[in-house]
Structure formats: C-alpha cells, structure tokens
Automatic annotation (TrEMBL):
Substrate binds at N191, P192, P193, Y194. One of its GO terms (biological process) is methylation. It comes from Candidatus Danuiimicrobium aquiferis. The keyword Protease does not apply. It catalyses: L-glutaminyl-[peptide chain release factor] + S-adenosyl-L-methionine = N(5)-methyl-L-glutaminyl-[peptide chain release factor] + S-adenosyl-L-homocysteine + H(+). The lineage of its organism: Bacteria, Pseudomonadati, Candidatus Omnitrophota, Candidatus Danuiimicrobium. Keywords: Methyltransferase, S-adenosyl-L-methionine, Transferase. Pfam families: MTS, PrmC_N. S-adenosyl-L-methionine binds at G124, T125, G126, S127, G128, D147, N191. This is Release factor glutamine methyltransferase. Methylates the class 1 translation termination release factors RF1/PrfA and RF2/PrfB on the glutamine residue of the universally conserved GGQ motif.
C-alpha cells in the first residue's frame, strides 16, 4: 500500500476538519502538520511529495481529533506570535488576540513620549503578552504585572524569561490593587474580562476551553472597567494615563466612566474592523 505524502496529509486533514465545521480548516491542518514535522509551512509544500513516518502520522491524527472537537489551535501549537515576541500558552491563560496588539501599540506611542524612566502597571496580565511587549519595545519602561491566577502567572513568568525581559517585570498575584499599595505609575494598561453574561452563554466553541475568569466581565461586561477606573486614581501619577481594550459597544460607556472620575483627554481608537476598541485618558 502506497504511503501518504505530506500533501496527502494536508488534504486529508483539511477534509476531516471541514467535516467537523472547523473554521479555516486548511490553515489549521497546515499549522498542525508544520508543528508535528517541526518545519515552516513553506517547507511542507516544497517537500510535499515526501512521505512521513508513522509516529508523525499518529501525532498529527491525534491533534486533528482535538482540533475537530474545537480545542483551540493555539493551545495545540503551544505558542502565539504577538507583535515582536512569541508567547507560550496553554489551558489556564487567555490566548492573546490581534486586537490587543493595537492596545500595546497605542501604549508604546505614549510611553516613548514620556521622559526618563517610566513605571507601568499591567492589570490582569494573563500570559504576559502586554507587559513583555512593552518591556521589549520601550527601553525606558519597568513593569509590574498582576493577575489573580497563579497558573496564568506561571506562563507569564516563563514568557518573560524566554523573551529576555524577566528582570524588568515584577509579577504579583493579586486581585487588582492588593500588594501594590503606595506605588504610583505613569501608565496603567489593561485588557480586562469584558464579556457580558449573555455573551458568555453564546461562546464560540473554542472559548469554552479558555479560563472563564479571564472572560467574565459581569452582567453587562464593564464591571472590571469600573473597578479599575475608580481605583486607578489612587495609583496613577498626576498626568499619568490609563489605556483599556474594550469589547464591541463598550467604548462610549468606558469613556464616560473615565471623564466622571477625573480623567481628561479621553480618546477612543478603532481596530482594523472599525470597532471602537481602545479607550484612554489622562489623570488630571
């Protein structure tokens, strides 16, 4: 019996995932095969006529079955590219999204205009993608990154080490403000949980595998924004700024919260799809 080639596995994997209604089935099949073979995707097609051994075949098929059950592709691949860094992920930490790259970009723009050393607080750091990117891209920054989840902090610390910025980030397990009393920051940045309860009941299949604590923003999704805005006034320097990533339809409400709590120069920025995604303000 003729052994299957690499391209045969791409085709069969794509068909299998499509039969289970997995979105972007071909991209998933390519990524999983690339992961198994430890080769970049372009080599899959360059060597498409080559056969693969039985161990690789079994590993690929096992990963396909998990993906067919809508297990997140990023958890299977164990890493996610995020701006200039690679972030390790797994169950217990939120998967970094492209929208958050916009948040980091806006934060970097503001930080690079600040003179001297700047202190940043990353609230709810998760995998550490925001804190690590800021430390990597802004040489004048030191970061305190907090999260209530020890498992998320385990990933964050390892990611900081892998990306060479562990000495510039202090990780603290806390729910928002405990453990950082008395510190004043130049910037507070946060991508807090912002799904409302109705949205949580209608999650995409992949999202049920991510930690609900990183998704649940309360009844209407803005609980954490309100808590952070209210508390931030006691932790920001005068003239310091706060930046949020927000969910669709939340930007105007978060902007009002900022204005009502002593913030000026409130700005709203959109993502690549035109959704109001980033809200920022300066403490007066």
């Amino acid at each position: 019996m003729k052994q299957k080639t690499i391209l045969d596995y791409v085709r069969c994997g794509t068909d299998y995932l499509e039969s289970h209604s997995v979105p972007e089935a071909r991209q998933s099949a390519e990524a999983l095969l690339s992961y198994v073979l430890e080769k970049p995707r372009w080599e899959i097609y360059l060597n498409g006529a080559c056969e693969i051994n039985s161990d690789a075949s079994e590993q690929f098929e096992a990963l396909l079955k998990k993906r067919a059950g809508r297990y997140p592709l990023q958890y299977l691949l164990k890493t996610v590219p995020f701006r200039e860094v690679m972030i390790e992920v797994g169950e217990g930490c939120l998967i970094p999204r492209p929208e958050t790259e916009i948040l980091v970009g806006k934060a970097c723009e503001k930080l690079k205009k600040m003179p001297g050393k700047t202190a940043v607080l990353d609230v709810g750091t998760g995998s550490g993608n925001i804190a690590i990117s800021l430390a990597k891209e802004c040489s004048n920054v030191s970061v305190i990154a907090t999260d209530i989840s020890m498992e998320a902090l385990r990933y964050a610390k390892e990611n900081a080490l892998i990306n060479g910025v562990r000495d510039r980030i202090q990780f603290i397990q806390t729910d928002l403000w405990q453990g950082i009393e008395g510190i004043r920051f130049d910037m507070i940045v946060a991508n807090p949980p912002y799904l409302g309860r109705a949205e949580l009941n209608e999650l995409q299949p992949e999202l049920v595998f991510e930690p609900v604590i990183a998704l649940d923003g309360g009844y209407d999704g803005i609980d954490y924004f309100q808590r952070i805005v209210y508390g931030a006034t006691g932790f920001l320097k005068v003239g310091g700024c706060v930046l949020f990533e927000v969910g669709a339809g939340q930007a105007d409400r978060v902007a009002i919260e900022l204005k009502q709590n002593g913030f000026q120069g409130v700005e709203i920025d959109v993502d690549d799809t035109g959704i109001k995604r980033i809200v920022s303000g300066v403490l007066s």
